[in-house]
Amino acid sequence: MIKKATTMQETIKKNMREGTGQVVLKALADEGSVAHCRLFSEIRLEKGCSIGEHNHVNETEYYWITSGKGIVREVDGDKVVEKGDLVITGGGASHAIRNEEAEPLTFLALIILD
């Protein structure tokens, strides 16, 4: 099966998880269409935009950075992430992500249910 980019729905969310600015989500899979998966999207953050801190209980979220540079906040502080990096958050842990650079920060987000 091939899903054409032109059929993928793009949604803009303002202040996602009490973050700043807006987040652009492109649904790679429709919600509920993949077993054990709550989210599979490409996410884009422009400069000054963020997803606020949130936790993952009974699920694990993966962010695979595909372009740009961002800052991820985890329990032990802020960490710089860039193209090719993988952020893994589960087991009740929390995280947030923001873009302070001129280049958009783009990443794939995948949430797998435990």
Automatic annotation (TrEMBL):
Signal peptide: none annotated. Gene3D superfamilies: Jelly Rolls. Keywords: Metal-binding. Residues 43-109 form the Cupin type-2 domain. GO terms for molecular function: metal ion binding. InterPro entries: Cupin_2, GPI/OXD, RmlC-like_jellyroll, RmlC_Cupin_sf. This is Cupin domain-containing protein. The lineage of its organism: Bacteria, Pseudomonadati, Spirochaetota, Spirochaetia, Spirochaetales.
